[in-house]
Design brief:
The protein is α+β, with helices and mostly antiparallel strands. It is about 20% helix and about 40% strand. It has 3 helices and 7 strands. The longest helix is centred in the middle third of the chain and has 13 residues.
Length: about 160
């Protein structure tokens, strides 16, 4: 009998992404961006882990590239495994909570980023149909319920 279980193809392996949650006065830092189809969607500052960077370095870089803000991660909100139904592609999102400082308004934003937004939870929920994925609101809700894990949870053997 042959097993149908085997190593996943490279196309089916989850891609590792990071996301930043920063809150100021009840409002959350978000971006309005173009997705792969060209639709205008809302997301946390987020993106893919690159090369030999740590997860913390990736979230700091992504937030700076997408918003112009310097992000300082303080905790992990959660790890989220999600599959995009239409693309048959999986993602493992590491969501960080932290603070932002000193936006550089002259810094160009990443390709596809239309603008930076600060929305409260209700304003974000009202635009649920525009979220890049269900992870956007789920991460905010987990953050609001107090889910926080220490950064020491991540063990990185990458030396930079």
């Amino acid at each position: 009998m042959t097993s149908t279980l085997g190593p996943p193809s490279a196309a089916k392996r989850p891609r590792i992404t990071v996301a930043a949650i920063a809150e100021r006065n009840g409002r959350f830092l978000l971006v309005e961006e173009r997705d792969g189809s060209g639709a205008l969607v809302i997301n946390q500052p987020a993106g893919h882990l690159e090369g030999a960077e740590t997860l913390q370095q990736a979230v700091v870089r992504e937030c700076l590239e997408e918003t112009g803000y310097r992000f300082r991660p303080d905790a992990i909100v959660g790890l989220y495994l999600w599959s995009h139904p239409a693309l048959e592609r999986g993602y493992l999102r590491v969501c960080f909570a932290g603070t932002v400082e000193g936006q550089d308004p002259s810094r160009p934003l990443d390709d596809g980023i239309e603008r930076v937004l600060w929305l409260n939870r209700d304003e974000l929920a009202d635009q649920n149909h525009r979220h890049r994925s269900p992870l956007v609101l789920r991460c905010i809700d987990d953050y609001l319920t107090g889910e926080r894990y220490p950064l020491t949870l991540i063990k990185s053997l990458i030396s930079n």
